[in-house]
Amino acid sequence: MAIAPLEILVSNSVYRYSFNDPPAMQDVEATIAVALFGTAAIHGESRARMDARYVIDVERRTCVIDSSTDAGQHLNALFTEYCRRTFGEDAFRIERLADGGVGERSAA
Question: How is the chain split into domains, by residue range?
Fold first, then answer.
């Protein structure tokens, strides 16, 4: 399932995942793909394509997810849980991007 690039508008519904080394970013990309399958199972493939938006920056070792829609919220929740179980809680951190600053959230 191909997803269009995400144009990120900073709001309180955007989350940035920053990954340590390991895991390999190829594994992170595979994990978001699995989370997308789960999102499509809940919302349908069309809704997932339209509303489950994300972008991965391999060089910066980050993934940003827009959770402003129901599909985005499910993608965010599934991705968080899959990363926690696959890579461990210490392998990444999650930040909620908000207007005027960044608020860090724990991986758990």
Answer: 14-100
Q: Is the dihedral of CA 31, 36, 37, 41 positive or negative?
A: positive
Q: How far is CA 39 from CA 72, 88, 94, in A?
A: 8, 22, 20
> What pLDDT does 4 receive?
47
- Give the domain 14-100 fold: Alpha-Beta Plaits (3.30.70)
User: What is the full DSSP assignment across 41-65?
Assistant: HHH-HHHHHHH-EEEEETTTTEEEE
What is the Cα–Cα distance from 29 to 77, expressed in whole angstroms? 16
> Which DSSP category does 102 fall into?
E
Task: Classify 18 as helix, strand or coil.
Answer: strand
What tens digit of pLDDT does each residue of 54-65 get? 999 999 999 999
C-alpha–C-alpha distance, residues 37 and 10, integer Å: 26
> 3-state class of 40 per DSSP?
helix
